[in-house]
Write a structure and sequence with these properties.
Layout (H helix, E strand, L loop, with lengths): L21 H12 L9 H22 L22 H4 L5 E3 L8 H5 L21 E2 L16 E2 L5 H9 L14 E3 L4 H6 L8 H16 L12 E8 L25 E6 L7 E3 L11 H12 L5 E7 L9 H10 L5 E5 L10 H8 L1 E6 L9 H7 L3 E4 L22 E2 L2 H5 L4 H6 L3 H13 L19 H15 L7
Parallel strand pairs: 1-4, 4-5, 5-6, 6-7, 8-9, 8-10, 10-11, 11-12
Antiparallel strand pairs: 2-3
């Protein structure tokens, strides 16, 4: 961990010589007055003084540390799960080994969470093993017995959540020689996040990734396949790691030598890169048991939905022909059928009770592209049992194949954005869908809820495969299918 302040030089530690003043003489006389009770020649006197001095130093040091830095983030660790007769069946694609990276690549970043963002501390966002603060204001919106399973989870917390889960996964092995895959617990998104703003250089944005690759390449298991059997979770969109020129946005981590063959789990993938795997954004629902999952599914299935469609978002006024603005205009002109949640500024960045309540009360939720092609709102919407309406194929269909139904029309609606720009009515398109078809589509959405949420227990849910389980199983399966290396 980096020091909280620079050590002063020996010159600075030299005391200044000052003449004796009456005040100092009085203090000396006061000290002399207690000598009969604490004789200086006695060893016990020096022991008592040393203990008192130590306590004073501890108090002074504690006061000098910012409160946010003192937030405790335990390093992800767990005893390995004992082997069982079912292991062969459960881990049919092999087991994986988790590298023990130096703390500078993960846990030290969390310990210095107040320095991850130039505008304020990120400590509260990453507490509770990455799930963030427990959600508030949900009374009367969700069942009382499920409120404890809701958190204000940050959309960029993926790396922390995955690190905690891999340490407890049934297919993790302590023996690298028996591993068919290797997980790199590097918090790439957190390291680059602090350098995306202000006057940081390309070198600043790339330094941690270069250090990580140097460390990993020095491991003997890297040379076994030149990295094709290695994988990593990167908690931002792929484009944040694909800088091609020094003055462009993001880091060049994915383009660095040695990263090409590593499988990368990202909340938004590059559809043309085989090694990018799109995984769901973290939502706020993190059930602790399989029963909580079915209880939530029953709740959203029985919800009374009084609004045909809704939109939670904000305009992008700086974008010419802003498509979100068109959607908002249609919604505002159709108040009996459409409900809007204004997300101007950062009010909706990590979810809110207003968004959840809106999704729970609507048959459909409009999902245009976000600042990139994807947006977390897709998963917030589906967890609430609302049917997503897409306008770009890359918002979901070309992103999350492992997690969503293979037939897009079974769970979603697609409306061509150019048609909307030319005056097509969104309500007119949705009114064409029969109530029976709406019921069928919602049932498909509800059935897939377990696959798009991240469960609270680090060892997963008994009998339920959540998004993490689906991701790990998918990665191990395709590595097994590509034994010997990816066929370029």
């Amino acid at each position: 961990m980096l020091p909280l302040s620079d050590n002063p030089s020996s010159e600075t530690l030299q005391p200044l010589k000052r003449p004796k003043t009456p005040e100092l003489l009085d203090r000396k006389n006061s000290f002399n007055s207690i000598q009969p009770y604490l004789p200086l020649h006695h060893p016990r006197t020096w022991l008592i003084l040393a203990v008192l001095l130590f306590q004073v130093l501890v108090l002074l040091a504690a006061r000098s540390v910012p409160i946010s830095v003192r937030q405790h983030f335990p390093s992800p660790s767990a005893p390995l799960i004992a082997s069982s007769p079912n292991d062969a069946a459960q881990c049919e694609s092999g087991k994986f080994y988790v590298y023990d990276l130096p703390p500078v690549f993960n846990s030290e970043l969390l310990q210095n969470c107040d320095k991850l963002n130039p505008w304020g501390s990120r400590c509260e966002a990453f507490v509770n093993e990455g799930f963030g603060r427990r959600a508030t204001g949900l009374a009367g919106i969700v069942p009382e017995n499920l409120i404890h399973s809701w958190y204000w989870t940050d959309q960029f917390a993926l790396e922390i959540i995955y690190h905690n889960r891999v340490m407890n996964h049934r297919c993790r092995t302590p023996d690298p020689d028996s591993a068919s895959a290797f997980y790199i617990p590097f918090y790439a998104g957190l390291t680059v996040g602090k350098y995306l703003w202000k006057n940081y250089s390309a070198k600043d944005r790339d330094q941690h990734c270069k250090m990580m690759l140097k460390w990993v390449h020095n491991q003997s298991y890297w040379n076994r396949s030149n990295g094709w059997d290695h994988f990593i979770a990167m908690g931002r969109i792929s484009w944040d790691f694909r800088r091609t020129r020094p003055d462009d946005w993001g880091s060049s981590c994915i383009h660095l030598p040695g990263m090409r063959n590593i499988t990368r789990l990202l909340i938004e993938r590059n559809p043309w890169d085989y090694f990018d795997v799109g995984v769901p954004y973290p939502t706020g629902f993190h059930p602790a048991t399989a029963t909580e999952v079915t209880t939530w599914q029953d709740f959203v299935r029985g919800r009374s939905r009084t609004t045909l469609y809704c939109f939670a978002g904000a305009t992008r006024g700086f974008i010419k022909g802003d498509f979100r603005g068109l959607l908002l205009n249609q919604c505002f002109a159709d108040p009996d059928y459409c409900r809007v949640v204004d997300c101007g500024g950062s009010k909706c960045s990590n979810g809110s009770s207003a968004i959840l309540e809106t999704f729970l009360g609507s048959d459909f939720c409009l999902q245009p592209r976000g600042d990139s092609f994807t947006r977390r709102s897709v998963f917030d919407c589906m967890v609430a049992g609302s049917i997503p309406v897409f306008f770009w194929n890359r918002t979901a269909y070309a992103q999350y194949e492992l997690f969503l139904p293979s037939e897009p029309g079974s769970y979603s609606v697609f409306i061509d954005r150019d048609a909307v720009k030319n005056g097509t009515s969104i309500r007119g398109e949705l009114d064409k869908i029969s109530r029976e078809e709406v019921r069928r589509m919602r049932e498909k959405v509800i059935a897939y809820i377990p696959r798009i949420i991240y469960a609270r227990p680090n060892d997963g849910l008994e009998g339920v495969r959540d998004a993490f389980d689906v991701a790990i199983d998918g990665v191990l399966r395709r590595m097994k299918e590509q034994e010997g290396g990816y066929k370029w």
